[in-house]
């Protein structure tokens, strides 16, 4: 990253002299085109201005009512698929619901996808890649629902996100994607085909000429369906031959593509190399002035954020990212890292800015973490638990004197409220109003019914703890709010365990219709016996793949947070967008409670509910109460 902040210069080597008069496409975007052999001056090259803080490093902290985010907010340009009126504006394309969901164990239900899409819209994302509609019926329905609900929710400023569906370069995928996204106010089809020598030889087994013909024909087909916003990606562009890239990109522009996405699919490039790739494409591709250039950087070498920023410096005006950086293998460029880098160094980069409202970053991160079950590592930049923690005595001394000594970003800027500055201490005598106010301060917008449920959970915890911390509250909210649609819910649990014999568990569950079901079982421990009792009721075979537990806070009275990962034994499959391989879905579940066995059972039931939600399967029609015993 250091190289980026010292004004990288991406020299390009044009192979074709391009004249603006030669293009046969009428829509023109002069700020995206340069016939010169080197990168144009600002705004495309990063300036050499001294790095500045994006928060309060060189000035006293602003009052709570005046945040850095408000001070730097600029108007979002009107949306036109293939041009941006302000050359400094950078579109944010979020692919959490597509590439992010390809992370093992990150399967999301339709409800969870819609919830995340709504939160992404609140965050201010320009384009939401809602999924890969051809991969499964579940994905198709989820994308369609997002297109209808989120894709038509226009705010007071006229903003509504583009809803995008991914497709391979074949008619069935493209038609399916269009059938899913066409209900949005601003629909987009994103189609791709591989272009690197290794992919051409071993995966596609096609010649360059064949691939160019397929790509241009499929872009034309997408446009023929009525979609005027088509994105094309040459998969594995980072390892593709430059001349071939220029040729295929020029042909898809001629066919009607409006955005060219340049993916570093295997995360092999370094910032200077990727920046030069973008610069070379700008200088050598016919018709490039008529499209938006985009980046998509994987994190295999840990350089996805650096490469993405380098691409923006070189002229890319759409950046593809995911919340928390989740995705295939080592993940993708992280939205929060890319956005806050541009916010901190936008002046260095010639005034680049986005339409993201950073104050929604933390809440979006927590929602994705809870729904996917993929925990954010404590030292993760921007949103990690330790991102604003200071343990060193020297650092603590500096922070007490001035927060800007060791913080370049105020946690409040991303929607994270400091626990010790809230002014409200919650305990067993606290009421609903105090609880609701603190939840709002933490960034939660919760319906009245959910607040009531959380309140009674809060009172139960407060009766056993002197003080309920913000971490406790977040755990309770996650357990009540960030859960899949309820098929089964834990009502009662009784376990007997110790050194004198087998552990036994009696479980009482309630189904979606309110009927109670009871089962007893024995096992090698309290959790094992409880899980077996749940299986007797649910009757849905599943294999437990992972089990983990953490204490939310310190002390013997801490809330336990449990995560499990299961795989169903029946057909729960999806198609991998890149390999075409049919993969078995896995499902995660989270639970929280002061009793570790209760927390564990809640997590297991949450995972089962998510799995059943994919099947749309209702509970078995048992009598009002049924008792089963497992030997």
UniProtKB/TrEMBL annotation:
One function term, GO molecular function aspect: metal ion binding
Keywords: Amino-acid biosynthesis, Branched-chain amino acid biosynthesis, Leucine biosynthesis, Metal-binding, Transferase
Recorded catalytic activity of this chain's protein: 3-methyl-2-oxobutanoate + acetyl-CoA + H2O = (2S)-2-isopropylmalate + CoA + H(+)
EC supergroup of this enzyme: transferase
Region (Disordered): 53-86
EC number: 2.3.3.13
Protein task: Catalyzes the condensation of the acetyl group of acetyl-CoA with 3-methyl-2-oxobutanoate (2-oxoisovalerate) to form 3-carboxy-3-hydroxy-4-methylpentanoate (2-isopropylmalate). Involved in Leu biosynthesis, but does not participate in the chain elongation of glucosinolates.
Official protein name in the record: 2-isopropylmalate synthase
Lineage, opening ranks: Eukaryota, Viridiplantae, Streptophyta, Embryophyta, Tracheophyta
